[in-house]
Amino acid sequence: IGALLLGARRAVALDIDPLAAEATRENARANAVTDRLRVVCGDLRSLRGAYPLVVANILYQVLLGLAPELGRRVAPGGTLILSGLLTSEAASAARVYGAQGLEPVREETEGEWAALVLRRPG
C-alpha cells in the first residue's frame, strides 16, 4: 500500500495469514487503492513470475528460509527490500541473499532494526 501511495501503478500483497490479508484489504480501502492492489492469501508459490520491486517484512529466520524462492521473484534489474531484521542479522541476510544473485545496495537502520536494499543485476 505504501508503494501505491508513493506512485506505483499496481501492487500485489501476499500473506499466509487470512486475518492479515483481510487487514490489508481494509487498509487498501481506507487508502483508496483497492483498484490497484491484488491481495493474495497464500505463500510465495501462490504467485507466478518476477517483479521489479519486492518488499518482505518478515523475521530473520523466515527470510533465510525463503531466500531461494523470494530471490526468484525479483526480476532482472529489480529491487528487493528486506525489513524485520535486527542490525545484528543484516550482514548474514545480505550474504544469504547474495548467494541468490542479489547485490546489496544499502542498509538502513533505526535503533536495533535494519532494512536491506538489494538489487538483481540486469
Note down, in words, how this protein is organized.
It contains four helices and six strands; from the N terminus they run αβαββαβαββ. By secondary structure, it is of the alpha/beta class. The protein has two domains: 1-48, no CATH class; 50-122, Rossmann fold, CATH 3.40.50.150. It has a four-stranded mixed beta sheet, with helices on one face. A two-stranded parallel ribbon has the order 1-2. The mean pLDDT is 96.
Outline the low-pLDDT stretches.
Answer: none
User: Please, how many domains?
Assistant: 2
Order of helical and strand elements: HEHEEHEHEE
What fraction strand?
A: 35-45%
Report the top-level CATH class of the largest domain. Answer: Alpha Beta
The CATH architecture of the largest domain? 3-Layer(aba) Sandwich
CATH topological fold name of the largest domain: Rossmann fold
Helix content class: 25-40%
Brief description of this entry?
Helix content is 32%, strand content 37%.
Write the topology of this structure.
Elements: H1 2-5, E1 11-15, H2 18-30, E2 37-41, E3 51-57, H3 60-72, E4 74-86, H4 90-98, E5 103-110, E6 113-119
Parallel strand pairs: 1-2, 3-4
Antiparallel strand pairs: 4-6, 5-6
List keywords for this structure.
two-stranded parallel sheet, 32% helix, alpha/beta, Rossmann fold, 4 helices, 122 residues, 2 domains
